[in-house]
């Protein structure tokens, strides 16, 4: 026998980067809000700082199934997404990138009214506390702390010098007037500590203005009655919403919940083409070299003590390191360097670090042409995406890899560059299958204009909105965490004010 329903004004599914903001802002306005999270608490030591992601990918990760990828020799991997309070914002590298003006103006041009750059800029400014202070582009009074990467290393400096020598301009703020150019990376950290939306919004809210948080609670389906979403079914426990149900489970989770609920192409509850379709992810090529200068790969006990002391004193040093420590943005690529080399198992999420000094350079294709989908298999979400399935993406990824080679093998990096650890035959898909992989920026599966309207309301079902990365019609230029938080902030405004 099922238990009696639990009732609130709003039910938010997912306490991740988006859900923590939506739920907290609604609760702060006086609403009774329940937020449901399938994962456990983020109050654990490995969430606090960057190195924690090395364990979090194994222990706080959905590890979504993927179909065998014919473009990569039939490999079936897993797709990472945070299964924990804070979502992917609790396990990610904390790289803070808004994207370009054109990303949002393009959304608006395709019918997403209210989502131009000028429309979303106030929300970016509202969420952030930028270390260098407010200006017309940046905010300094928001909950999310944003600072320059707190780890300085000769490899980062050499990379920036190489980019400048190659004709790229230094950029004082790639989240400001223009993204193009090279600089140190910005991270959502406070004195080296993670500043996720869960930590910055939800945990710091006054106790009488917090949402009711239910952890380790899995939303199995949306309850729809007479064409209106009235709650969610959590394995026999029904959570009822007086006002709205809001999905913030991410591009895979939100699409899967709709599909399980009979909402999607030829759905029993609502025939809504587009649900689960339009899956997009940034394509990334990883290359690495041995380093002539010490890196974190060979840290010993004394180095670790010094790193801990530096972090405790000022939030700087190796513990404040990021996988993207310095970045070059071109029209096509995001290129990033980090003075360490490690691999994360594409199935088990376990991290492996070679005990030899090395550095890694990533070239990320910011706007790939390939598209995939999210489907269900025995009610479980599965990502169906041929990562190298579009010829234009293959050509572009090879251009990005050559750009990296040219930068790293330039005179500016000679003092730090050791032997290459990459295959030399930089040609064709075969080379790419060894070097290309995901950095887990899933978007698009409940896109504005197709699945939701510009007010984030689901088409065809009343009382149901989506406010997460799934609503992005196209990828933004760079890491997707900051845009996801912006969507959540604006989504809360749409719910509260019309």
Structure description:
The protein is an alpha/beta fold and 498 residues long. The protein has one domain (6-497): FAD/NAD(P)-binding domain, CATH 3.50.50. 25% of the residues lie in helices and 24% in strands. It has helices at 19-28, 53-59, 101-109, 117-127, 154-165, 197-202, 250-260, 301-314, 391-408, 428-435, 481-497; strands at residues 6-13, 33-36, 64-66, 78-79, 128-130, 144-148, 181-184, 186-187, 189-190, 193-194, 212-214, 221-225, 228-234, 237-247, 263-264, 270-271, 283-291, 326-329, 333-338, 342-344, 351-353, 358-365, 373-377, 380-384, 417-420, 436-438, 464-466. The strands form 7 sheets. Strands 1, 2, 11, 12, 13, 14 and 27 form a 7-stranded mixed beta sheet that branches. Helix 1 (19-28) runs parallel beside helix 11 (481-497) and helix 4 crosses helix 11. It is globular and about 70 Å long. 54% of the residues are buried.
Secondary structure blueprint with pairings:
Elements: E1 6-13, H1 19-28, E2 33-36, H2 53-59, E3 64-66, E4 78-79, H3 101-109, H4 117-127, E5 128-130, E6 144-148, H5 154-165, E7 181-184, E8 186-187, E9 189-190, E10 193-194, H6 197-202, E11 212-214, E12 221-225, E13 228-234, E14 237-247, H7 250-260, E15 263-264, E16 270-271, E17 283-291, H8 301-314, E18 326-329, E19 333-338, E20 342-344, E21 351-353, E22 358-365, E23 373-377, E24 380-384, H9 391-408, E25 417-420, H10 428-435, E26 436-438, E27 464-466, H11 481-497
Parallel strand pairs: 1-2, 1-14, 2-11, 3-24, 5-6, 14-27, 15-16
Antiparallel strand pairs: 3-4, 6-8, 7-18, 9-10, 12-13, 13-14, 17-22, 17-25, 17-26, 18-19, 19-22, 20-21, 23-24
